[in-house]
Amino acid sequence: MHTGAQYHEFFLTSRREVAIRERFQQRVQGLLAPGASLLDFGAGTGIDAKTYAAQGHRTYVHEPSPSMRAHLELYCRDDIAAGEVVILDGDLPCQVDAVTANFAVFNHIADQRPLFAQLSGVVRPGGFILASVLNPYFLGDAKYSWWRKNLLNLVRHGHYGFATESGIHRFAPRLPARAARPHFRLERVLPGGVAKLFAPYLFLLFRRT
């Protein structure tokens, strides 16, 4: 497991991860109205949160890892002091226009139905959730034996998981779409078509019903 400092350094210096983060942030900004509020769910060390706050969005953050949260409090200390970034506990006491979950936060949650039910009380009607999830179809992973061994599980069941400390689960978009009902509908999966095979992450856009 990465410490907060290690995570922060990696995600600010890896060219691939920086590019993915920029695409995600651009997608969020394109969906948000000026001055809209959001919850950064699984905020890590606050890299996204700081950007959203700088763009004029009051940003609530939830991060369960003590190491990540400690680094977030350091990295976003000025934004927190100004009330532009607000740290929440697990009860998520806020009402926002959107929820963002970047870099595979949802992949740590096997049963997502309780999460979507909880978030339905957080996201205002017409708002959205944008989550980036590990792409189970990514051909770049075909070189690994675990990908090849689980391909049949993906086709048959739509998911597979690993018995690791972090408990990573990979799933076809139809599973979170089903878990989100009736509170949210899956509006879009990006990228689509053949391009999906070459993207390490998928962006799933859910709309509050």
From TrEMBL:
InterPro entries for this protein: SAM-dependent_MTases_sf
Keyword rRNA-binding attached: no
Pfam families in the cross-refs: Methyltransf_23
Sorted UniProt keywords: Methyltransferase, Transferase
Listed GO MF terms: methyltransferase activity
Gene Ontology biological-process annotations: methylation
PANTHER family, alphabetized: PUTATIVE (AFU_ORTHOLOGUE AFUA_2G14390)-RELATED (PTHR43861:SF3), TRANS-ACONITATE 2-METHYLTRANSFERASE-RELATED (PTHR43861)
Protein name: Class I SAM-dependent methyltransferase
